[in-house]
Amino acid sequence: MQANGVVYEEPSNGLENAKATLRDYISIMKWGITIANLMATFAGMWVASGGHPGLAPLLLTLVGTALVVAGGAALNNFYDRDIDQHMARTKHRAVAQGKVSPAAALAIGLSMSVVGLAVLLLFVNWQSAACAFVGLFVYSYLYTVWFKRHTTLNTVLGGVSGAMPPLIGWAAGSGGSISLAGWCLFFTFFLWQPPHFLPLAMKKTEDYRAAGIPMLPVVRGFRETKRQIVLYTAAMVPVSLMMTPLGAEGWIYFVVMAVLGIWFLYLGVKGLYIQPERDLEWANQVFRFSLIYLTALCVVCVLSVSIF
């Protein structure tokens, strides 16, 4: 198969598949990413319920979301097995190497996704299930099949799926209604995606170029990428702070996220003025801080509601 000037070969389905271990099957579900999404789901549900989500609804929401997210990851491994072979970061994935067959990855992805959606629909509410379905559809089909391979806006458009877990939690914790504060949380996560993934794309530019993926740093260069990181960060900070005026969070949240948001923006602006030879060093710094920011956001969401 050929796309964007790159020839892809189907992974071998012969003897290599016999080497697949339980760890290989687990790896295609990207449990590290799944756990991060559960953290966001928990935060959204906690805030929406005022700190009293109920144990059974909480567990069912987390189980359903975990299955959907893990299922989507397996579907991504299934479809991206061609380009994964050309990237140092992904060439050791089990499907790309032929350890797990594409058919098995597809079956696992579809099964987990359907069961997860059923759990949310039958035991939580249809609104949470709808949010999960939208996230799954955007990530597994629109992003994986179309956006990632055809447009520099792939990170931005795909960000819808990354912002769905807190909305799933919000719908579950509120009994199905999503308030303006809930949408502010959604858009905070949505706007966080580019300042998080674009620095990673800068670090892996040659990987993406080799795979024929039109990531922004590949097509438009580092200068434009850094400019867009600043723009999205600048939009994210005030949106995140709206949670307090809307009454969903206390002042501890406002102060902590204001400080972290301003520092995040400072790091972004700093990148516009550094020497080109330091771009990758700066990208690594921003990428690492983006993880700190999101983790702090989830933690302070819970703590601020709990205290007040």
TrEMBL record:
UniProt KW keywords: Cell membrane, Heme biosynthesis, Membrane, Transferase, Transmembrane, Transmembrane helix
Topology versus the membrane: Multi-pass membrane protein
Stored InterPro entries: Protohaem_IX_farnesylTrfase (IPR006369), UbiA_prenyltransferase (IPR000537), UbiA_prenylTrfase_CS (IPR030470), UbiA_sf (IPR044878)
Entry annotated with the keyword Ribosomal protein: no
Pathway as given in its UniProt record: Porphyrin-containing compound metabolism; heme O biosynthesis; heme O from protoheme: step 1/1
CC terms in the record's Gene Ontology section: plasma membrane
Listed EC numbers: 2.5.1.141
Catalytic EC class: transferase
Catalyzed reactions: heme b + (2E,6E)-farnesyl diphosphate + H2O = Fe(II)-heme o + diphosphate
Compartments where found: Cell membrane; Membrane
Molecular function GO labels: protoheme IX farnesyltransferase activity
GO process terms (BP): heme O biosynthetic process
Xref: Pfam families: UbiA (PF01040)
Transmembrane segments: 28-48, 54-79, 100-120, 126-146, 167-192, 251-274, 286-307
Coiled coil, from the record: none
Oligomeric form and interacting partners: Interacts with CtaA.
Further comment found in the protein's record: Carbon 2 of the heme B porphyrin ring is defined according to the Fischer nomenclature.
Function: Converts heme B (protoheme IX) to heme O by substitution of the vinyl group on carbon 2 of heme B porphyrin ring with a hydroxyethyl farnesyl side group.
Family: Belongs to the UbiA prenyltransferase family. Protoheme IX farnesyltransferase subfamily.
Protein name: Protoheme IX farnesyltransferase
Gene for this chain: ctaB
